[in-house]
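Study this:
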Amino acid sequence: MKKNLLLIFLVLTIQTGYSQDTQIGDTGNGRNFIKRIEPNLLHKAMIINGKTYCSYNLKSKTDIEKLLFGDINAKVEFVITPSFEGSYGMRLVKDSLNTGYLLEIKRIINWAEINSQLEKEFPLIGFGLGQIDTVSKEQEKRAVRHNRAMLVKHDEERLKRYSVARQSIAVKNKFAEKLYGTIFSIIKNFVMKGDPAEIFDGYDATFRCVVDDEVWTLTIQNPDGVIEQLTNICNLIIKDVEANTFNESKHIESLDVMYACNNKNVVQVSLSDILEEKGFVDVSTLSKDQKQGYKKICGLILSKLEFRDGRLKFTATKDEFTSEGISESLL
């Protein structure tokens, strides 16, 4: 659909803003974000006839997030809100016996159809590029008022008309705790760096988890770096569940590798120690020179591991090994 500059300007002048109790800024590459910590409950839980009733604090959730996951604040939530397709996400909730976890996937499946309907029913006013110099200030004001009213109608109606597909599978506690720990770490360690940049479309990624009596939320536009890596892993988890090809071990391994590659200063156990512990190498049989070469090999391997596109990449060459003084007989 063709858009012109003035129509975009008129839409952007309708401010939505962020609430004042959030931390707002940009990452090193100019990504807008919201990071907030709030009480998980609005008031103390009540027990009536042996059943616990909670009033969850949903203030950090957008209308779309509430449409997907608006009943509770789950242990973990992940939501993608794209500019030009339906939102989708996943969350971890306790099963009916409260002994294990369910991974729930939800996706808006009729986004294009509904937005096409709304554009016809509640059209926006725009002016051609050739009209920009002839449009009066009063015409601009009327267009802004009209577009503001139409966009309010869009927001009201789309929530009523969207259809949400649902799917859930049981997952083991190990996977649930690994996913929770990774998202908790991402939110906790995220800090603002760099200057802002103007990005008008793409997608927002929201990570949310419950920490004791609090709910932590990080929403970031077009993430990069480690958050993009985690976004890709979460997207792949959703894709695999929807395709009935979900493999817990594969995704646990991806989360482990992502953490190790982005926290080399935190990971204290060296590769050589792991290989010795697992019985792959018997250091007692190596000569002094061989031991030194072995340690160098393990150190170089760790330094040349990178996590990109959801996979582990090894970037070293044989020349880099020999340049480190490692004998070719050890390779």
Q: What stands out?
A: The chain is about 40% helix and 20% strand. Residues 1-28, 265-269 have pLDDT under 50 and may be disordered. Residues 4 and 129 are 7 Å apart (CA to CA).
